[in-house]
Design goal:
The chain has about 140 residues and is an alpha/beta fold. The protein contains five helices and five strands; from the N terminus they run βαβαβαβαβα. Helix content is about 40%, strand content about 20%.
């Protein structure tokens, strides 16, 4: 009998290379199960509704309404899912837009693999995953 249930994670990003890198990272972690990938907001919403992930890594800027729309719809249609915003940008307005849409965390695509994995773990534990060293001026 397994000691703990695996964390079900989905990735939504319009860049194939980002999806592939995250797939390789998440697939290498025994406590994480990658349940699917999506390239736009609509596909992300459908994937979340059908697979009910524990955590959805959602790109802020992608076709089909972007991360904020995907986040709102994922949370409306799959309430247990917790969304972590994923972006190439680290700016306060982008963070706030995703948090207002319902994201509980935020990671930058250039973050270390340890930071991304830690954000997923913190999210599952019910903690926020917003970087503490962000500039707020």
């Amino acid at each position: 009998m397994p000691t703990a249930e695996r964390i079900k994670v989905m990735v939504a990003d319009d860049e194939e290379s980002v999806r592939d890198v995250l797939e390789a990272l998440l697939s290498s972690e025994p406590e994480i199960e990658l349940i699917g990938k999506a390239a736009d907001a609509e596909a992300a919403i459908e994937l979340a509704c059908s697979k009910l992930p524990d955590v959805a890594l959602v790109d802020v800027h992608m076709p089909g309404g972007g991360g904020p729309r995907a986040t709102r719809e994922i949370l409306r249609r799959s309430p247990p899912t917790r969304v972590v915003a994923l972006s190439a940008h680290e700016d306060v307005s982008t963070v706030l837009t995703m948090l207002r849409a319902g994201a509980v965390g935020y990671v930058v695509k250039g973050d270390s693999t340890d930071e991304i994995l830690s954000a997923i773990q913190r999210t599952v534990e019910g903690k926020t995953s917003v970087r503490s060293e962000e500039h707020t001026s």
